[in-house]
Structures are given as structure tokens and as C-alpha cells.
């Protein structure tokens, strides 16, 4: 006779197991994670011979790390000072770095191996910054140091990972030609320190390389540079060396970049800011007819739209104040095709229109025609037809829509396909815009009475926002009342450029001539604008330091 009790418990067990499997099957699968991201660079566990060894005679140096690592950009990052005819050989052996030295070490000499950012971990490329190894083949190790800070000449902010290096005064001619062997990187506060220096006379530089650089060789067209004009005599520890980096103005004009964009427009970039630039298509001369040219505010870039793109190549003459600067060639591929998108941007900010501005559309291409009948305006869902479409008289990319906008209303603009026609008969696809009008109560005015220290000199006084972007500027040379009227509430500040040559712009320095950038002073006093308020106070410009 079957054991009913045993069968009952087997059935219960089976049902329980099925329920458990069902629960696990319904649960959302979760990816297996590797824990928090590793942000720690390799750590040095041991150096053989020890760092700062005197009477050094070893042929090989071994540096042991706590994890596997890699050597990156060795030719750019690793150096030995003084330089050797034959460079040391770096080799990875598991978690150790072996450096084999040549047989040409000088007697009674301190050597510094500088790894820069060459050593990084395998997985996340976390870099050991400013790793160095120092030894002496004599009884003494050079122990002098040089310390200071690197800031931006324009913003005054600390420069992170700027390269600071020195060159013996007698070898200063190598600047910009060869990678320095004595260098260090600034920390997050812009501070730097060069250690184990030999007594002597040096020139000191700071270099902020453009993205994609890293060779520590100054490239005038892309990098920022700072320097101390007079050589520094190192006979004791030197501190408080302040370097200000700046983008140097090119001594000669030339076209840095020339290209035909995907929409058929031409883009040109120059090495200098021009005063009254003009562009002319000299060959074929027929292509010049009807062209449209737009320069940026600093006149160092230009965009050109041509009506005729049937050429294989053209010659473009660039002039400034009527003087020919350069003639360049631009070639076009015979099979090149272009894509033209006529979708504009507007001048609203987070869907809100400044009550002191007209509603404006800016297109990527010059507009040749507009059809207001293909525009629908809804005012709180009510259709309005009494708007006016106006072509901007000074900018071929802009159109304005005038309407008695009201606060507390929502405006919907629908532009059907073909509402706007651009060059080459390009037409817009359907697009919509939605916004509200900000109340004037959200805007205010700030007035400043500015007192200058010397009425024989010029000062450029600029209102700037929190990102240090200029909002409005005045050139003054006497006590003057300036105004930031009808601006959105927020935090504003003032900076002053000591305009030494009275040309109305900030002039940078010149390494070859040994000139520093014009001094900029940032007022620490916040010039806030409060909603629906007009605030007035005074500002006294100090003497330049």
C-alpha cells in the first residue's frame, strides 16, 4: 500500500520549489558590476638603488609598483637632466620598471629622471604625476628649488597641469625648438615646484598646451605661454615666482585653416585679428559676384557663402584696411555634394523671451526669401495674424517677428515647410517654436561711477558674468558713470584692462620682444542686479601692480 504521508510531503516540496523558481525567474536580472571606478594611480613600493643615492654607480634602476602599469607617450613625457647622448632604456617587467643607463654619466653630477605623465595603470590610465628619481655620481646632490604659481593672464584663474620648465640662460635659444629636460606640472591650485636644481642662471617658462599637444615644445599658433623676462639666478631656494600664461598674437598674418563645409560654405581662420577685413574671389572673378561674407567679432575668422560652386579651385585675396595680406587657393572635389539644413535657432533662454529684445530667428544659411503665410502664431491657443516678419538689415542669417507679446501668455509658432528659402533654393522643413515673455520685473539696472587713478591713461571697464564672459564694456580715461541697463537679475562683476597703448582692446604679450600682457584687475565686489531695482554705487580703479 502506497505511503500517502510521504507522497503528500513530496507534492508539497515540489509546489514550494516551483514557486521559488517562478519568483527568481520573474526577478529583473541585474548586471554584474565591478564596484566603484578605480581612480587611484599606481603607488611606488620600492626604488633600487634608493632615491637620492649619492656616489651612484649602478647600471640599472628598478622601480616597483603596487599594480600592473603601462608607459605612455614616453618620448614626450620621460626625460633625464642633464641630457645624455644615449637616452636611458625603459622596460616593464611585471609590476616593476627597469631603467638601463648608458655608460656616459659624468662624475660629480646630479641627475634627475622625470617621468611626467608617462606612468599609468593598465585599466583606467590613472597617471602618476611628477614622478621623479634623483641620484648623484658624486658626494653631493643638488638641492636648490624654484617654486611659484601659474595663472591665466586673462581670467586670473589658476592653471592646472601647465608645464613649468627652465632652460640654462646660455641655451635659451632652444626655446620652442626642443623639449625641455627640467620641468614639472602645476597642481589644481596652479602651484609648482622644481627640485634638485643646480646653481646657475636660467630662463623660466610656463606652457599651457592645446588639446592634442603634449610634446612640451611651444607652438605659437595653438599654445599659451608665460615667462619671466629677466633670467633668474638660482643660488638659493626661490619662491613666489608668478607666471601668467597668454595666447600670443602671431607676428605675421597667415591663414591657419581653409575648408569647404558640408553645406558648401567656406570657413577661414586667421593668425591675427583684423581691423577692416575684406575678401575677394580673384579667380575666377565671376564667382565673386553676389558672395556673402561674415566675420566674427574679433575679425579672426570668416565664413563665406558663394552663389556659384561649379569651380574646381578658386583664389581668395584677404585684405585689411585695403592692404593685401595673403592670397590663397581653395580646391573643390568634382564629386563633392552638400547637405543644407535650414533649421534656425532663436534668442529665447529656456523658453523665455527677454522683454527688451525682439523675437529673432538665426539660420545656418543666408535667407533669400520668406513667406509669412506659412507661419502660424498661436497666442494661448488663439490664432493671431497681426505679426510682422522682418528681415534683419545687417545680418543675412536673421529674421525678426514683431508682435505685441504679453506676459503670462504661451506662444506657439509653427513654420510649415518652405516658409524660408535660402541660397541654392534650400528650403526649411517644418519646425515649431514655443516660448513665453519674461516680465520686466525680472530685470534691473546697475549703475557705476568709476574713478580712474590717472587721467592720462585709458581703461577698459567691462561688466562680466559669473563665467567671466564680457557683457558690456566702456573705454574711459576720467571719472565716468557707466550703466548695465535692463539686464536679467543675477550676479555680475567688473574687470578693468589697463589699456597701455590706448587701442581699446586687451593686448597680449610677446616672448621674442619680452613684453607681458596688459594688466587686468578683477574687482572682488559683486555687482548684482536685483529684479525691478536700479542700484548705483562707486568703483575706484587701483594703480596697476
Automatic annotation (TrEMBL):
Keyword field: Signal
Keyword Signal: yes
Keyword NAD: no
Pfam families: Big_5 (PF13205)
Occurrences of domain SbsA Ig-like (ranges): 38-137
SUPFAM superfamilies according to UniProt: Starch-binding domain-like
InterPro entries linked to this entry: Carb-bd-like_fold, SbsA_Ig
Entry protein name: Ig-like domain-containing protein
Organism of derivation: Pedobacter ginsengiterrae
Amino acid at each position: 500500500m502506497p505511503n500517502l504521508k510521504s507522497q503528500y510531503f513530496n507534492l508539497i516540496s515540489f509546489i514550494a520549489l516551483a514557486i521559488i523558481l517562478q519568483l527568481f525567474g520573474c526577478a529583473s536580472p541585474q548586471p554584474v558590476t565591478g564596484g566603484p571606478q578605480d581612480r587611484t594611480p599606481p603607488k611606488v613600493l620600492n626604488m633600487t638603488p634608493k632615491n637620492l643615492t649619492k656616489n651612484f654607480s649602478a647600471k640599472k634602476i628598478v622601480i616597483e609598483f603596487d599594480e600592473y602599469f603601462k608607459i605612455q607617450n614616453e618620448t614626450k613625457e620621460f626625460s633625464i637632466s642633464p641630457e645624455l647622448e644615449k637616452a636611458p632604456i625603459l622596460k616593464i617587467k611585471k609590476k616593476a620598471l627597469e631603467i638601463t643607463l648608458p655608460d656616459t654619466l659624468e662624475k660629480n653630477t646630479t641627475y634627475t629622471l622625470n617621468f611626467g605623465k608617462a606612468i599609468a595603470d593598465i585599466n583606467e590610465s590613472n597617471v602618476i604625476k611628477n614622478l621623479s628619481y634623483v641620484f648623484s655620481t658624486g658626494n653631493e646632490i643638488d638641492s636648490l628649488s624654484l617654486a611659484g604659481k601659474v595663472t591665466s593672464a586673462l581670467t586670473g584663474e589658476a592653471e592646472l597641469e601647465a608645464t613649468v620648465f627652465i632652460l640654462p640662460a646660455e641655451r635659451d635659444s632652444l626655446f620652442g625648438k626642443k623639449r625641455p629636460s627640467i620641468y614639472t606640472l602645476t597642481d589644481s591650485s596652479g602651484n609648482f615646484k622644481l627640485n634638485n636644481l643646480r646653481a646657475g642662471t636660467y630662463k623660466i617658462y610656463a606652457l599651457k598646451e592645446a588639446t592634442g599637444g603634449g610634446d612640451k615644445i611651444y607652438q605659437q599658433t595653438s599654445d599659451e605661454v608665460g615667462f619671466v623676462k629677466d633670467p633668474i639666478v638660482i643660488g638659493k631656494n626661490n619662491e613666489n615666482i608668478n607666471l601668467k600664461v597668454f595666447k600670443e598674437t602671431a607676428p605675421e598674418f597667415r591663414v591657419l585653416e581653409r575648408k569647404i563645409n558640408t553645406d558648401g560654405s567656406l570657413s577661414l581662420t586667421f593668425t591675427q585679428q583684423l581691423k577692416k577685413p575684406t575678401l575677394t574671389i580673384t579667380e575666377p572673378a565671376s564667382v565673386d559676384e553676389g558672395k556673402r561674407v561674415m566675420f566674427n567679432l574679433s575679425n579672426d575668422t570668416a565664413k563665406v557663402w558663394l552663389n556659384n560652386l561649379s569651380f574646381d579651385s578658386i583664389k581668395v585675396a584677404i585684405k585689411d584696411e585695403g592692404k593685401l595680406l595673403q592670397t590663397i587657393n581653395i580646391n573643390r572635389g568634382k564629386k563633392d555634394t552638400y547637405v543644407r539644413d535650414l533649421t534656425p535657432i532663436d534668442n529665447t533662454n529656456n523658453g523665455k523671451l527677454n522683454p527688451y529684445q525682439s523675437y529673432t530667428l538665426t539660420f545656418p544659411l543666408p535667407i533669400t526669401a520668406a513667406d509669412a503665410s506659412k507661419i502660424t502664431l498661436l497666442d494661448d491657443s488663439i490664432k493671431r495674424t497681426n505679426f510682422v516678419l522682418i528681415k534683419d538689415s545687417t545680418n543675412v542669417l536673421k529674421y525678426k517677428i514683431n508682435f505685441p507679446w504679453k506676459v503670462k501668455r504661451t506662444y506657439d509658432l509653427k513654420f510649415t515647410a518652405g516658409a524660408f528659402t535660402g541660397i541654392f533654393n534650400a528650403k526649411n522643413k517644418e519646425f515649431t517654436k514655443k516660448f513665453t515673455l519674461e516680465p520686466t520685473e525680472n530685470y534691473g539696472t546697475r549703475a557705476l561711477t568709476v574713478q580712474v587713478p590717472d587721467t592720462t591713461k585709458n581703461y577698459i571697464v567691462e561688466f562680466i558674468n559669473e563665467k567671466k564672459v564680457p557683457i558690456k564694456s566702456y573705454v574711459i580715461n576720467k571719472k565716468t558713470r557707466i550703466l548695465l541697463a535692463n539686464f536679467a537679475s543675477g550676479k555680475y562683476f567688473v574687470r578693468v584692462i589697463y589699456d597701455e597703448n590706448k587701442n581699446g582692446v586687451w593686448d597680449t604679450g610677446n616672448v621674442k620682444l619680452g613684453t607681458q600682457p596688459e594688466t587686468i584687475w578683477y574687482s572682488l565686489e559683486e555687482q548684482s542686479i536685483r529684479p525691478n531695482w536700479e542700484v548705483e554705487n562707486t568703483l575706484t580703479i587701483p594703480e596697476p601692480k
